Amino acid sequence: MENLNSLSPIQNKRMTCYGGVVAAAALPSPPPTTLTTLPSSPSNTFVRVREVGSGGAEDPNTVVKQSVDGFKWRLLVSYDGTRYKGWQFQQTPPTIQCILEKALTQATKLERKDLHLVGASRTDGGVHAWGQVAHFITPFNYDSLDSIHAALNGLLPPDIRVREISAAVPEFHARFSAQGKIYHYKIYNDAIMDPFQRLYAYHVTNKLNAAVMREAANHFIGTHDFSAFVNSSRNDGMPNPVKAIFRFDIVKMGALLQLEVEGSGFMYRQVRNMAALLLQIGKEAIPPDIVPKILATRDRKELAKYTSAAAPPHGLCLVAVKYNAEHLQLPLGCPTTSLGRHHIVSKCKVPFY
């Protein structure tokens, strides 16, 4: 897997960006899938996956130790989160994980509990993703991944797409192996909203000062306790509030203002809370140096004095997840990574007159 993202100085591990690098391709309807039974040869390193970290049938993301024999597969997934209640599994209203698992059960003929599907990031309702990463397990091998890839995209709705499928080493875990994530938050800063941006950017009519927003964003860079920027209404399974922010850029593209943040990890609504504070600073309602003062309190109530709510979810997008290079290595004897198949149009044999 190629590393197309440069590493920040604060990162001292060799990491590869997985997500946001492969263009989506239109795929045909699913043909029959070719499967190979689980081989018993001990020399094949692509068998006997011992899965630790994924949860049970009710919630595969719960931190529960268990052992699973089989083959592990990595998915690169993009979705428009407008219609969904986030990633985390629940039947109604539908979630991304729920819809993806239904497609996987149809394509693999396995029960949901046997797939052990886990996502790298449990995005909130209305949040989008270009580079979500997930993994699942099957008791059988595939000779080729192109057919299962085409089958999944044929079964999924058009606002969810599997961009890539590859084999994964037993040590890889979509969530627990992640070393960093990149999020973008888009703001459309103009008097009249662009209708083509309405689902993917937050409309702000107040004129924003991008310079002071950049000054404030720089205060987030480094390792901090982000307790003041996390909502505590959900048990995230990751209680440590100390996170590292590698970069926080404010990119202006005409009326579009894009907040680009890369860090070791993010807690519940942390990015949206940081974006909400930067919006108030951009409106020049509060000074940029308020950021370190709020961070120092480690108190969510302190942030509430300056912004009443997190920025709306539809402006946020998970762009990429980063992993150590060894976790992205392909196992020995595995099928070739599938990036999707293109239709080939043969030449017409009937002459034109």
From TrEMBL:
Keywords: Isomerase, tRNA processing. Belongs to the tRNA pseudouridine synthase TruA family. The keyword Flavoprotein does not apply. Residues 77-176, 216-324 form the Pseudouridine synthase I TruA alpha/beta domain. Coiled coil: none annotated. It catalyses: uridine(38/39/40) in tRNA = pseudouridine(38/39/40) in tRNA. It comes from Salix udensis. It comes from the Eukaryota. Transmembrane segments: none annotated. NCBIfam families: hisT_truA. Its EC number is 5.4.99.12. This is tRNA pseudouridine synthase. InterPro entries: PsdUridine_synth_cat_dom_sf (IPR020103), PsdUridine_synth_TruA (IPR001406), PsdUridine_synth_TruA_a/b_dom (IPR020097), PsdUridine_synth_TruA_C (IPR020095), TruA/RsuA/RluB/E/F_N (IPR020094). It is an enzyme of class 5 (isomerase). CDD domains: PseudoU_synth_EcTruA. GO terms for molecular function: RNA binding; tRNA pseudouridine(38-40) synthase activity. One of its GO terms (biological process) is tRNA pseudouridine synthesis.
